[in-house]
Design a protein that fits this description.
- The chain is an alpha+beta fold.
- It folds into two domains: about 5-85, Porin; about 90-118, no CATH class.
- It is about 15% helix and about 55% strand.
- The protein contains two helices and six strands, in the order E-E-E-E-E-E-H-H.
- It has helices at about 95-105, 110-115; strands at about 5-10, 15-25, 25-35, 35-50, 55-65, 75-85.
- The N and C termini lie far apart (about 45 Å).
- The model has no long low-confidence stretch (mean pLDDT about 90).
Length: about 120
Amino acid sequence: MAVADPTTLTLVRGSTALTRINQDKFTSTFRFNDATSKVEMNVRHSSVTREGVIYDRHNIELLETIYATSTVAQLTRKCYLVFEQPSSDVSIVNVTGLLTGLTAGTNALLTKLMNWES
């Protein structure tokens, strides 16, 4: 049974609506599937205590599978982001700064990263 709260991502295919298909405590799974591909996004939250400080850990993972055709083999792409900070610190400045920097302008920093330049 699908759970409310869909999300939409802009991918190569364009705007892609993912439906939340599962939610268990601190984990959600979102999915889109058609005849040519499947997109799955997993969101996980956990906490860990180090030296008496509780850290919240947030993990978001995106998997895209392009199905095989008669001329092209199946392809799977995976990317994820993990950030961790004390649970009392709700600042998103560093995560926002990293994502903005990676995609600024013409995605220059991300392109360098993909080309092993940084």
